[in-house]
């Protein structure tokens, strides 16, 4: 089964086009190094929950929106190999130099797919 890295981040609304450009560049790098797909989703129906929610999870401010992203790999081993190549690619550091979001509030992790239909 496939393996997925997932990300949730708060992005300032005024920086969405800069984020889109960064995401496009980063996705190309990940795909070039072997990722199967990269998906970026802009919050549309994510209410601020009383206890938990996407906006709460990343401490989104009123001028920010939430982006949910994931990268799909053939396996965990392939993910580790792809990410090693990506992290060694100088284009990633260049792309991330002026990232339009606060990476300290980003949530991320790797997930083993256990059901795929």
Explain the layout of strands and helices.
Layout: E1 3-12, H1 16-32, E2 37-42, H2 54-57, E3 64-73, H3 76-88, H4 90-96, E4 107-112
Antiparallel strand pairs: 1-3, 1-4, 2-3
Helix pairs in contact: 1-4
InterPro entries: Dimeric_a/b-barrel, DUF1428
Protein name: DUF1428 domain-containing protein
Organism: Methylobacterium crusticola
Could you walk me through the main structural features you see in this protein, from its secondary elements to its overall organization?
The chain is α+β, with helices and mostly antiparallel strands and 117 residues long. The chain has a single domain (3-112), classed as Alpha-Beta Plaits, CATH 3.30.70.100. Helices cover 35% and strands 27% of the residues. It is built from 4 helices and 4 strands. The protein has helices at 16-32, 54-57, 76-88, 90-96, and strands at residues 3-12, 37-42, 64-73, 107-112. Strands 2-3-1-4 form a 4-stranded antiparallel beta sheet. Helix 1 runs antiparallel to helix 4. It is globular, with a radius of gyration of 15 Å. It starts with a strand and ends in a 5-residue tail after the last strand. 18% of the residues are buried. This is DUF1428 domain-containing protein.
The tally of domains stands at: 1
What value does the Rg take, in angstroms? Answer: 15 Å
Which structural category fits the helices and strands?
alpha+beta
As residue ranges, the low-confidence spans are none
Major beta sheet, strand line-up: 2-3-1-4
* Run of helices and strands: EHEHEHHE
The top level CATH class name: Alpha Beta
The fold-level CATH name is Alpha-Beta Plaits
Helix proportion of residues, in percent? Answer: 25-40%
What is the distance, rounded to the nearest whole angstrom, between the alpha carbons of the first and last residues? 11 Å
- What is the overall shape? globular
Q: In this structure, how is the largest beta sheet organized?
A: 4 strands, antiparallel
Q: What CATH architecture label applies?
A: 2-Layer Sandwich
Q: Kindly state the mean pLDDT as a whole number?
A: 96
Number of strands: 4
**What kind of assembly state do the chains in view correspond to?**
single chain
Task: Please state roughly what percent of the residues sit in beta strands, choosing from under 5%, 5-15%, 15-25%, 25-35%, 35-45% or over 45%.
Answer: 25-35%
Number of helices: 4
């Amino acid at each position: 089964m496939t393996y997925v890295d997932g990300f949730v981040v708060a992005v300032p609304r005024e920086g969405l086009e800069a984020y889109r450009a960064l995401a496009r560049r980063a996705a190309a790098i990940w795909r070039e190094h072997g990722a199967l797909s990269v998906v970026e989703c802009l919050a549309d129906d994510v209410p601020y929950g009383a206890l938990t929610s996407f906006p709460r999870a990343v401490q989104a401010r009123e001028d920010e929106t939430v982006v949910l992203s994931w990268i799909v790999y053939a396996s965990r081993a392939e993910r580790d190999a792809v990410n090693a190549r990506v992290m060694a690619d100088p284009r990633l550091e260049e792309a991330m130099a002026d990232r339009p979001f606060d990476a300290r509030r980003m949530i991320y992790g790797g997930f083993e797919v256990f059901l795929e239909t």
